[in-house]
């Protein structure tokens, strides 16, 4: 009379997510184009604020990275000049030439893998659906880099 029903619905997440665009995996299944949810002013504000924050952070991190790389190179030059370290320039030149050959080899194929092409197509579709948000983000990013 009071028997439990022990049947379960099993959801295979791997199969479910294979057919979902990457932005829906990140933002939630119900999120599509922001144009469907927000008016133009809201999209511009959201895009502009997130773009400005991203640009500001990129600017600060970029300055820090440039200072670290430049300072490290400067210290290596001083250490080399004073004799603390010895640089084998022939070995450096050989490795640079090897790297150049590898770059020429990889760039001569000019074949884009289908996985990369599908990701690029997904990004382009997302940008087309959210033109106003993307424009606001780009403008905000430029302002963030400049401030």
UniProtKB/TrEMBL annotation:
Protein name, per record: FUN14 domain-containing protein 2
Protein species of origin: Psilopogon haemacephalus (coppersmith barbet)
Subcellular location, principal: mitochondrion
Entry's localization field: Mitochondrion outer membrane; Nucleus
GO biological process, one term: autophagy of mitochondrion
Superkingdom of the organism of origin: Eukaryota
Keyword annotations of the record: Membrane, Mitochondrion, Mitochondrion outer membrane, Nucleus, Phosphoprotein, Transcription, Transcription regulation, Transmembrane, Transmembrane helix
Topology class, membrane: Multi-pass membrane protein
InterPro entries: FUN14 (IPR007014)
Protein family (similarity comment): Belongs to the FUN14 family.
Described purpose of this protein according to its UniProt entry: Binds directly and specifically 1,2-Diacyl-sn-glycero-3-phospho-(1'-myo-inositol-3',4',5'-bisphosphate) (PIP3) leading to the recruitment of PIP3 to mitochondria and may play a role in the regulation of the platelet activation via AKT/GSK3B/cGMP signaling pathways. May act as transcription factor that regulates SREBP1 (isoform SREBP-1C) expression in order to modulate triglyceride (TG) homeostasis in hepatocytes.
